[in-house]
Amino acid sequence: MTLLTSYNIDPKGLLTSVPFRPSPHADARPEGAIIDMIVIHNISLPPGEFGTGAIEAFFCGELDVAMHPYYQTIANLHVSAHLLIKRNGQVVQFVPFHRRAWHAGESAFAGRTRCNDFSIGIELEGTDTMPYEEAQYQSLVAIIAVLRDTYPSITCERIVGHADIAPGRKTDPGSAFDWDYLRTHL
User: Fold this and answer.
1) Closest CA to 86 of 137, 136, 142
2) What is the pTM of this model?
C-alpha cells in the first residue's frame, strides 16, 4: 500500500483525498479562537481490537451498542476527533479543522482550559501499550506538516498527548507512542 506523503487542506477545512464522515459531535469554535495545538489520542473499539469500523460509527453517533458489551459503557458519550489514523495509515476526517471537535473533554494546557477550543484532535487506532504502525507515523508526520503550514501557531511544543492536557484522567497515546520518532521527523 502506498500512502500519501503529503496532504493539502481545502477551503472547507478538509484534507484533500481523505474520506470525510461528518460527525454530529462538533460545533463552532469560540469567536476569535486561534488554532495553536494538536492533541494526539488513541482509541480502539472494542478495546484492543482493530479494524472493526466501530470507531467511525462511534464518532458519527451510529454505534450499535448491542454489538459488544463494552459499547454499553460509552453509549451516552458524544465524542469526535478531527481525524482518525487507522493501523494501515489510512485517514478519515470527521470534523473540518475550523470547527471544534469534542475530543479533549475537561482539559488544560499552559494555563488555558477547554483545549477543544484551540486544538486539533488526531486519534490513532491503537492502545497505550501496543506499538503503533510505521504507516500511522508516516501519515501523522505528513498531516502535522500541513497543519503547521496552515496554522503557524502550532509549534513543536504544542503537539501534545491527551495525557498532557488531562493528567490523571487520560493516559493516551500511552507508553507505546514513540515521541522521539515523531519529533525527529517533524
Assistant:
1) 136
2) 0.96
**Predicted confidence (pLDDT) per residue in 111-139, tens digit:** 999 999 999 999 999 999 999 999 999 99
Catalytic residue among 31, 106, 123, 133: 123
Q: Hey, which bits of 50-143 come out as E strands? A: 83-85, 91-93, 99-101, 108-109, 112-113, 119-125
Q: How far apart are CA 94 and CA 20, in angstroms?
A: 6
| C-alpha dist (Å) from residue 89 to 5, 79, 134, 138, 143 | 11, 21, 8, 7, 11
Query: What are 120's strand-pairing partners?
Result: 38
Residue 134 annotated to the active site: no
Dihedral over Cα of 103, 47, 55, 19: its sign: positive
Q: What is the distance between the alpha carbons of residues 25 and 81, in angstroms, rounded to a whole number?
A: 9
CA 168 from chain center: how many Å? 19
